[in-house]
Design brief:
There is one protein chain. This protein is an all-alpha fold and 446 residues long. The protein has one domain (2-445). It is built from 18 helices and two strands. It has helices spanning 2-23, 32-43, 65-69, 78-86, 110-121, 126-151, 156-163, 166-172, 177-196, 204-220, 242-271, 277-281, 286-295, 297-320, 333-345, 358-383, 403-408, 422-445, and strands at 61-64, 94-97. The chain starts with a helix and ends with a helix.
Length: 446
């Protein structure tokens, strides 16, 4: 079944992903323009955002004017895309802007930066560079999920099903940092599971690869830091020497914490030059909000409960399939429901020989809760007015990295619903559902 799942995944995910690249207009994934600007800046050799030497604040990014013309409010139908595709890019006609994504680490933009470097030096339209970047990101995503399916010792159908969710695919084929971040999270979870259940002693090569993965997790987004704790399960593994435990979970954790602090300080310094009109209008003040949480902890707990109570359906829907784009591509509720059912049954349709222990499930639950709370708290501090009764700006796509861990923690070994040819049925159903989604995307942009 292992080989069959991998082959079926490749045969089905590639055409569906390419169709998403074709039908979803460039810059129409959330904040994609900002990520494109960041990638273009990196392609010019600016691995770190240029800063004022005295104040440390960002001094802006120089980008071709056509990238402003390609913003989602301008590029919102296929006819306008045709116009931009035939329009020659003047790489000397530049404007200076501040990108909200300027503090993201360069590693998450390397495929896009390489694409822009190529088209700029060949004097080809930057729009083709955007499509090349989307193809490269999608290629990395496919290889990452394929690796996860191959590497994990249980829950292969879970990884396959999650890979076909429209929201996941939208991010995977975008130039957003989320494309590479989500892929790395999938690899990290699957690789950690493989180490947990590996009978042989963990090798030096595996230790190095694992350290690289937890460093990537630590610099991705602060809210995902609790997921590093998933690897702490390895502390109880008999396959790791005391020396390796100290190296990986002692020194490694200190390095990760240091990277988080440095990255946070760096982003705060850059963001001072990029205060949005939204933040001023909505009384967003991070320092005052932190004080409010410290002095009113019970009120903040109530805020979290209020936010989930009012928006839980939206969070689930927007984690799976709808709304896509800039929250304006509404997918039929029946289609979303079918995807949700597919996600649930993926836990029960595969006979697994391994599963997590009760203690491991409890630990995973704590990590998931911690991640969700950090996502909520981060947005409450950085995107919500001081003392508001509900967290603003939360979208289901932020929870994509924890979705596989939630489902994997529900798996029970040697118990499953036996359905003949299920490894064929599930991908076919997911392909059919995605075709319906693609039709709605097409109708939106036509």
């Amino acid at each position: 079944m292992k080989a069959k799942i991998e082959k079926i995944f490749l045969l089905t995910i590639i055409p569906i992903g390419l169709l998403y690249i074709i039908f979803m207009l460039p810059t129409y994934a959330p904040d994609e323009s900002a990520h494109i600007w960041r990638a273009y800046d990196i392609s010019q050799g600016n691995i770190f955002t240029r800063q004022n030497r005295k104040t440390g604040e960002a001094i802006g990014i120089n980008i071709p004017q056509i990238l402003i013309d390609a913003k989602q409010e301008n590029l919102n139908n296929y006819d306008k895309l045709k116009e931009l595709l035939i329009k020659k890019t003047n790489y000397n006609d530049t404007v200076t802007i501040y990108s909200p994504a300027q503090s993201y680490p360069f590693v998450f933009y390397l495929p896009a930066a390489i694409s822009f470097f190529i088209v700029r030096n060949l004097n080809i339209s930057i729009i083709y560079g955007i499509y090349l970047a989307k193809i490269l990101n999608f290629t990395i995503y496919v290889l990452g999920v394929l690796y996860a399916i191959n590497k994990t010792v249980f829950g292969k159908m879970i990884f396959l099903t999650c890979a076909f969710l429209p929201m996941v695919l939208q991010q995977a084929v975008s130039i957003s940092a989320d494309s590479i971040i989500n892929t790395c999270m999938i690899i990290y979870i699957a690789y950690t599971i493989s180490l947990i259940f590996q009978e042989e002693k963990i090798t030096t090569k595996q230790n190095v690869l694992y350290c690289i993965l937890i460093v990537i997790v630590s610099i991705a987004k602060m809210a995902y830091i609790p997921l590093i704790g998933f690897g702490f399960i390895l502390l109880y593994s008999k396959n790791i020497s005391v020396r390796d435990k100290i190296i990986i979970f002692g020194i490694g954790t200190l390095i990760c914490i240091s990277l988080v602090v440095i990255n946070y300080g760096y982003s705060m310094k850059l963001d001072k030059s990029n205060v949005s009109e939204y933040k001023m209008i909505n009384d967003v003040n991070s320092l005052e909000q932190v004080k409010y949480i410290i002095y009113n902890p019970f009120a903040y707990i109530k805020v979290i409960f209020n936010t989930f109570a009012r928006n839980v359906k939206f969070y689930i829907s927007s984690c799976i399939a709808s709304p896509l784009g800039w929250l304006d591509i509404k997918i039929n509720k029946c289609i979303v429901l079918m995807f949700a059912i597919s996600v649930i049954i993926s836990v029960f349709i595969e006979k697994n020989k391994k599963d997590f222990t009760i203690k491991q499930r409890i630990w995973n639950l704590l990590l998931i809760i911690g991640t969700v709370l950090l996502i909520m708290t981060g947005l409450y501090i950085s995107w919500t007015g001081v003392g508001e009764i509900e967290v603003a700006g939360v979208q289901g796509r932020y929870f994509i990295p924890v979705l596989p861990l939630i489902l994997l923690s529900l798996c029970v070994k040697n118990k499953c619903i036996r359905i003949p040819y299920i490894q064929y049925i599930v991908p076919v159903v997911l392909v059919a559902l995605n075709c319906l989604v693609l039709n709605q995307i097409y109708q939106f942009f036509i």
